[in-house]
Amino acid sequence: MKKYETDGDTLIHALIVMLNKSFMTPIEREDILALANSMDDVLDGMEECIAHFDMFGIVEADESMKKFVENIVASTDEIVLAMEKLQRKDLVGMRENAIKIKDYESKCDEVLRKSIKQLFLHETDPIRIIQYKDIYEQLEDIADDCQNVANTMETIIMRNA
């Protein structure tokens, strides 16, 4: 995960260099940078979450974590599909992907509430409560980062479609 996060940072830097040149795009440079930065935030969140798994010595995901990951993977798949539409200049078509990403984020909100409730109802080890609550909240933050990508996409759509 660290390699993906580092590669993402390298791509962001290269994008900034390209945008600072007299590179003209049909979409505002600021919008492209905002979109790239919001996608980088998703990678950063994933790398940070994986680091916490390692620090806490958690080697197996519980059911709540698996539900978060299912929704996050679905969100990132929608981001990929939206970027393919962006390449084809199908900005209006990206709206469908943005809506789905927001739906997945809402599902993660519900998973967070249920998982924390279950954690406090059934777990007796206070250290484990702290660790799992932290992981759940980080996974929800990644879903929020995906939603921020969707919000940025909608801004681009609004300005250019």
Structural account:
By secondary structure, this protein is mainly alpha-helical. It has 5 helices and no strands. The protein has helices at 2-20, 29-56, 63-87, 91-122, 126-160.
Features:
single chain, 5 helices, 161 residues, mainly alpha, globular, 86% helix
Order of helices and strands: HHHHH
Q: Alpha-carbon distance between the termini?
A: 35 Å
Strand content: under 5%
Number of helices: 5
What is the number of beta strands? 0
Q: Which percent bin holds the helix content? A: over 70%
* Residue runs with pLDDT of under 50 for 5 or more positions: none
Radius of gyration: 18 Å
Q: Mean pLDDT, rounded to whole units? A: 90
Shape: globular
The major pleated sheet works out as:
none
Structural class based on helices, strands and sheet pairing: mainly alpha
